[in-house]
Design goal:
The protein is an alpha/beta fold.
Length: 331
């Protein structure tokens, strides 16, 4: 599909890359400034704002996909479309609707969605919110297709668990650390930028917790493929976990928080746990005892989710195709 550009203010995200590949779109990850300091955030956003406009002026897209949050990413896209008659769609993640994260930006989100072709959300519950705004929406979850390229990632002998983390507030990593203390024979590989780990965690970090740092895509999927199980947790109901779908893409048994939405999505190859140290402990033990069975179930789950994703994606593509073919959004 010609004339589409995807903008995201992140270091990297698999979802952005997959959607760009399926749409034939150019994609740009834009991240500037010093991380981990709120003092630098306004300046970083200003730099990213200017860089976004520069890229759009260079690409001259008919259609722009833009990831939210942060909601500020949408503003330069909206302004560009206003000036040059392009069209845009917002890919809004769950945190964009969460009160203690980006919920404060909902009025601005609603206003921008009213100018968008559609707002893409991760589940029907969020879709109903967008529909309540009088805006068009589409539900498109995380991509569950097989990962075909990866790099070898050396893991230690024994049972290995990959813990998907970005050190976000909804991740109960302190309880993962507590569970790991009771399972010294299990290795836990915690992904994500370790500089974001709260200082209090250092005091309780057991020797079998291994911080990988932010991994390049090839190494990241190499870790998942080498693991015996993938642990992806959230204390936030209604959240679809990118890490869970990435585990499915590699065929590795999954351990997730026991929320109704996650139970409805991941109906095989999965162990559901409470977000407590004891719950995580028992979940890891169960994944070890049932590992062969869980791997077999994961193949069927992957096939079902991929079929559902393809159907949902074609709905999104149809909207963008129509916008292009009708001549709208031409600069």
């Amino acid at each position: 599909m010609p004339g589409i550009t995807f903008i995201a203010w992140v270091k990297y995200q698999h979802r952005v890359e997959v959607l760009s590949q399926h749409l034939g779109a150019t994609r740009f990850f834009i991240l500037r400034g010093k991380r981990g300091s709120r003092w630098y955030l306004p300046l970083a956003y200003l730099q990213q704002f200017v860089e976004t406009l520069r890229i759009l002026h260079q690409e001259k897209p008919q259609i722009i996909l833009v990831q939210n949050p942060p909601i500020f990413t949408v503003i330069p896209v909206y302004l560009y479309c206003l000036l040059f008659k392009s069209k845009f769609a917002i890919d809004s993640h769950t945190s964009a609707f969460t009160p203690n994260e980006w919920g404060w930006s909902m009025p601005l989100h609603r206003w921008l969605s009213r100018s968008a072709l559609l707002t893409i959300v991760h589940n029907e519950q969020l879709g109903q919110i967008v529909e309540g705004w009088g805006c068009r929406y589409a539900v498109l979850g995380e991509y569950p297709g097989k990962i075909l390229e990866w790099e070898d990632f050396p893991v230690r002998p024994g049972y290995n668990v990959a813990v998907i983390s970005s050190f976000a507030p909804d991740e109960p990593l302190d309880r993962v650390f507590q569970a790991a203390q009771q399972l010294p024979e299990v290795n836990f590989y915690v992904t994500g930028d370790a500089a974001r780990m709260p200082p209090a965690f250092v005091a309780i970090q057991p020797s079998n917790i291994h911080l990988t740092g932010f991994l390049p895509k090839g190494q990241y999927f190499g870790l998942l493929r080498s693991a015996d199980a993938v642990l992806a947790l959230t204390t936030r109901d209604g959240t679809i976990l990118s890490g869970a779908n990435e585990a499915i893409s590699t065929g590795v048994p999954l351990i997730v928080s026991d929320w109704p939405l996650l139970r409805s999505l991941y109906s095989g190859g999965t162990v559901y746990v409470s977000n407590t140290a004891e719950g995580i402990l028992q979940g890891v033990i169960e994944s070890r005892e049932r590992n062969v069975v869980l791997r077999g179930e994961m193949q069927g789950l992957q096939a079902r989710l991929l079929e559902e994703w393809d159907t949902a994606f074609m709905g999104v593509k149809k909207v963008l195709d129509e916008a292009c073919s009708n001549g709208r959004g031409k600069r």
